[in-house]
């Protein structure tokens, strides 16, 4: 399992948290989704072979959110 931290644009309310959790949680290989609204980040614990980074970004885009790997 891998943990990927994403910066997500456009999150503004608790409804966004549920929407993002649902969009990522339905992907095969995603074990855990932790949305931090205040920081604008999402931590995803996933199997990188069945849920690679592009699949995570695409799922968020389909849900209406632009995202990218979080720069440390």
UniProtKB/TrEMBL annotation:
The keyword Electron transport does not apply. One of its GO terms (molecular function) is metal ion binding. It comes from the Bacteria. Gene3D superfamilies: 3.30.70.100. Residues 2-68 form the HMA domain. Keywords: Metal-binding. InterPro entries: Heavy-metal-associated_CS, HMA_dom, HMA_dom_sf. Coiled coil: none annotated. This is Heavy-metal-associated domain-containing protein. It comes from Polyangium jinanense.
């Amino acid at each position: 399992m891998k943990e990927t931290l994403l910066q997500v644009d456009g999150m503004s309310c608790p409804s966004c948290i549920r929407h993002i959790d649902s969009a990522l949680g339905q992907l095969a290989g995603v074990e855990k989704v932790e949305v931090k609204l205040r920081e604008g980040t999402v931590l995803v614990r996933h199997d990188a072979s069945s849920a690679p980074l592009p699949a995570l970004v695409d799922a968020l885009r389909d849900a209406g959110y632009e995202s990218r790997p979080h720069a440390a």
